[in-house]
Amino acid sequence: MQTNNSKTNLILASKSPRRHYLLTQAGLKFEVIPSTIDESKFPLSTPETYVQALAKAKARDIAEKHPESWVIGADTVVLIDATILGKPRSKEHAYAMLRQLSGKTHQVLTGYCICCESRHVLFSETVTTSVLFKQLSEDEINWYIGSDEPFDKAGAYAIQGLGTFLVKAINGSYTNVVGLPVCEVIEFLIKQGVMGLKEKIKCSKN
Question: How far is CA 135 from CA 89, 177, 200, in A?
């Protein structure tokens, strides 16, 4: 795969190290300029609408300041029993989240937006992945919380880290659970000519 042209300015509007890692692994050259929007001002509508609205706001916040650049914004939440789980506020909150996820299937929703102000392009969608957790014991939950990994993670876990032992199965995009549906993002960038391929490669959605 060819990386994006050096003359093309690509910006990730997120300080997430997980999204940074995913795009780097995909061979993209980009700059990180985190959005500073106030997420608390966004109403909790449907999960799909909520994450997409946040992704759009983050991308446009940076795109307005860098109109010639292609900007990627994203937001991820965990959904279980019609309840949205964001990032835990405390150890007790993390414990409650992991107890709620234990032994059940939940959905990870990532809304992403790619835009370029000068070209009047704005595309966004929400990708959903189903994740099945193993039945967790109290000792396992307390041990995991003690690792400090659950904090700053939607749903209080990181599938790419120690939290991999929590997951029995997934149905859908793995990178979406990490924080960004890389296949979909790259497909859009290829269509827009932001990056190219030596030969056409279709990536699986499963």
Answer: 23, 19, 42
